[in-house]
Amino acid sequence: MTPPPRPPVQIAWVTDDLDAGASMLTALLGVRRWVRMPGVHFAPDTCSYLGEPADFVADIALSYVGEMQLELIAPVRGHSLYDDFLRAHGPGLHHVCIEAEDPENFDVMLNDAAEQGAAVVARGVMPGGMQFAYVSAEESGIPYLEIAYVPAEIRAVFDYIKQEQRQ
After folding, report:
1. Is the dihedral of CA 124, 38, 72, 90 positive or negative?
2. Which UniProt keywords apply (predicted)?
3. Residues 4-29, buried b or exposed e (16+ Cβ, 10 A)?
4. Among residues 100, 97, 140, 135, which one has the least CA distance to residue 118?
5. Are the beta carbons of 17 and 74 closer than 8 angstroms?
6. Chain segment 126-161, per-residue pLDDT in tens
7. pTM for the full model?
8. What torsion do the CA atoms of 5, 105, 99, 73 make, to the nearest 10 degrees?
9. What is residue 116's DSSP assignment?
Protein backbone atom coordinates (compact mmCIF):
# COMPACT_ATOMS: atom_id res chain seq x y z
CA MET A 1 0.00 0.00 0.00
CA THR A 2 1.30 3.43 -0.91
CA PRO A 3 1.42 5.85 2.02
CA PRO A 4 -0.19 9.28 1.79
CA PRO A 5 2.05 12.11 0.53
CA ARG A 6 4.62 13.13 3.13
CA PRO A 7 6.34 16.29 1.95
CA PRO A 8 9.74 17.11 3.44
CA VAL A 9 9.75 19.79 6.14
CA GLN A 10 13.52 20.02 6.62
CA ILE A 11 16.77 19.78 4.68
CA ALA A 12 19.90 19.05 6.73
CA TRP A 13 23.62 19.17 6.12
CA VAL A 14 26.46 17.76 8.20
CA THR A 15 29.56 19.91 8.43
CA ASP A 16 32.70 20.34 10.43
CA ASP A 17 32.31 24.13 10.25
CA LEU A 18 28.92 25.63 11.18
CA ASP A 19 30.08 29.16 10.36
CA ALA A 20 31.13 28.25 6.82
CA GLY A 21 27.93 26.28 6.20
CA ALA A 22 25.71 29.04 7.57
CA SER A 23 27.56 31.71 5.58
CA MET A 24 27.24 29.81 2.31
CA LEU A 25 23.56 28.93 2.79
CA THR A 26 22.88 32.54 3.76
CA ALA A 27 24.53 33.70 0.54
CA LEU A 28 22.86 31.08 -1.66
CA LEU A 29 19.37 30.99 -0.15
CA GLY A 30 18.96 34.41 1.43
CA VAL A 31 18.71 33.14 4.98
CA ARG A 32 18.58 36.03 7.43
CA ARG A 33 19.26 34.46 10.80
CA TRP A 34 20.48 31.19 12.24
CA VAL A 35 19.60 30.02 15.73
CA ARG A 36 22.48 28.06 17.21
CA MET A 37 22.16 25.29 19.73
CA PRO A 38 25.64 24.35 20.89
CA GLY A 39 26.35 21.10 22.68
CA VAL A 40 23.12 19.20 22.02
CA HIS A 41 23.50 15.91 23.90
CA PHE A 42 22.01 12.76 22.43
CA ALA A 43 21.96 10.66 25.60
CA PRO A 44 22.19 6.86 25.87
CA ASP A 45 19.04 6.56 27.98
CA THR A 46 16.90 8.09 25.18
CA CYS A 47 18.87 7.65 21.93
CA SER A 48 20.33 4.76 19.94
CA TYR A 49 22.55 4.34 16.92
CA LEU A 50 22.93 1.05 15.06
CA GLY A 51 20.93 -0.69 17.77
CA GLU A 52 23.20 0.42 20.62
CA PRO A 53 22.74 3.22 23.17
CA ALA A 54 24.05 6.47 21.68
CA ASP A 55 26.05 9.04 23.60
CA PHE A 56 27.18 11.92 21.44
CA VAL A 57 27.13 15.70 21.21
CA ALA A 58 26.53 17.91 18.18
CA ASP A 59 26.34 21.64 17.58
CA ILE A 60 23.20 22.51 15.60
CA ALA A 61 22.06 25.61 13.73
CA LEU A 62 18.49 26.07 12.47
CA SER A 63 16.90 28.51 10.09
CA TYR A 64 14.06 28.69 7.57
CA VAL A 65 13.52 29.58 3.95
CA GLY A 66 9.77 30.02 3.65
CA GLU A 67 8.24 27.00 5.35
CA MET A 68 11.33 24.79 4.84
CA GLN A 69 13.52 24.32 7.89
CA LEU A 70 17.26 24.26 7.27
CA GLU A 71 19.55 22.45 9.69
CA LEU A 72 23.31 22.39 10.00
CA ILE A 73 24.83 19.70 12.22
CA ALA A 74 28.45 19.61 13.39
CA PRO A 75 29.45 16.54 15.42
CA VAL A 76 31.46 17.44 18.52
CA ARG A 77 32.15 14.15 20.30
CA GLY A 78 31.01 10.54 20.43
CA HIS A 79 30.11 7.97 17.80
CA SER A 80 27.12 9.08 15.73
CA LEU A 81 25.57 8.87 12.29
CA TYR A 82 26.72 12.47 11.77
CA ASP A 83 30.34 11.69 12.62
CA ASP A 84 30.32 8.53 10.49
CA PHE A 85 28.82 10.46 7.56
CA LEU A 86 31.39 13.24 7.85
CA ARG A 87 34.29 10.76 7.92
CA ALA A 88 32.92 8.71 5.00
CA HIS A 89 31.67 11.51 2.73
CA GLY A 90 32.97 14.80 4.04
CA PRO A 91 30.62 17.74 4.61
CA GLY A 92 27.39 17.62 2.68
CA LEU A 93 23.68 17.05 2.35
CA HIS A 94 22.74 14.48 4.99
CA HIS A 95 18.97 14.05 5.12
CA VAL A 96 15.52 15.39 4.56
CA CYS A 97 12.91 15.13 7.28
CA ILE A 98 9.24 14.25 7.14
CA GLU A 99 6.93 14.86 10.06
CA ALA A 100 4.44 12.67 11.88
CA GLU A 101 1.30 14.37 13.16
CA ASP A 102 1.31 12.49 16.49
CA PRO A 103 3.25 9.71 18.30
CA GLU A 104 0.98 7.00 16.90
CA ASN A 105 1.55 8.25 13.35
CA PHE A 106 5.30 8.30 14.06
CA ASP A 107 5.16 4.56 14.78
CA VAL A 108 3.04 3.96 11.66
CA MET A 109 5.57 5.84 9.53
CA LEU A 110 8.44 3.77 10.97
CA ASN A 111 6.52 0.57 10.24
CA ASP A 112 5.78 1.78 6.69
CA ALA A 113 9.49 2.47 6.17
CA ALA A 114 10.42 -1.00 7.45
CA GLU A 115 7.85 -2.61 5.14
CA GLN A 116 9.51 -0.80 2.23
CA GLY A 117 12.93 -2.13 3.26
CA ALA A 118 14.31 0.99 4.97
CA ALA A 119 16.15 0.10 8.16
CA VAL A 120 16.04 2.26 11.29
CA VAL A 121 19.65 3.22 11.99
CA ALA A 122 19.15 5.80 14.75
CA ARG A 123 16.32 7.00 16.91
CA GLY A 124 15.60 8.88 20.08
CA VAL A 125 13.57 11.28 22.14
CA MET A 126 14.93 14.76 22.83
CA PRO A 127 14.10 17.01 25.79
CA GLY A 128 10.65 18.46 25.19
CA GLY A 129 9.39 15.14 23.79
CA MET A 130 10.51 15.39 20.17
CA GLN A 131 10.84 11.90 18.72
CA PHE A 132 13.12 11.23 15.76
CA ALA A 133 14.30 8.27 13.75
CA TYR A 134 16.62 7.99 10.79
CA VAL A 135 15.83 5.32 8.24
CA SER A 136 18.19 4.30 5.49
CA ALA A 137 17.87 2.51 2.17
CA GLU A 138 21.36 3.15 0.86
CA GLU A 139 21.11 0.54 -1.89
CA SER A 140 18.29 2.70 -3.30
CA GLY A 141 20.31 5.91 -3.02
CA ILE A 142 18.61 7.08 0.20
CA PRO A 143 21.34 7.44 2.83
CA TYR A 144 19.00 8.92 5.45
CA LEU A 145 15.42 10.06 5.77
CA GLU A 146 14.47 11.47 9.16
CA ILE A 147 11.00 10.87 10.55
CA ALA A 148 10.09 13.20 13.42
CA TYR A 149 7.22 13.90 15.75
CA VAL A 150 7.37 17.51 16.97
CA PRO A 151 5.23 18.24 20.06
CA ALA A 152 3.74 21.68 20.78
CA GLU A 153 6.62 22.80 23.05
CA ILE A 154 9.20 22.23 20.32
CA ARG A 155 6.84 23.53 17.60
CA ALA A 156 6.77 26.86 19.48
CA VAL A 157 10.58 27.03 19.27
CA PHE A 158 10.48 26.25 15.54
CA ASP A 159 7.80 28.90 15.01
CA TYR A 160 10.01 31.44 16.81
CA ILE A 161 12.95 30.56 14.54
CA LYS A 162 10.71 30.89 11.48
CA GLN A 163 9.44 34.28 12.73
CA GLU A 164 13.03 35.48 13.10
CA GLN A 165 13.36 35.21 9.29
CA ARG A 166 10.64 37.80 8.80
CA GLN A 167 12.36 40.53 10.84
Report:
1. negative
2. Lyase
3. eeeeebbbbbbbeebeebbeebeeee
4. 135
5. yes
6. 989 999 999 999 889 889 999 999 999 999 999 999
7. 0.94
8. -140
9. T
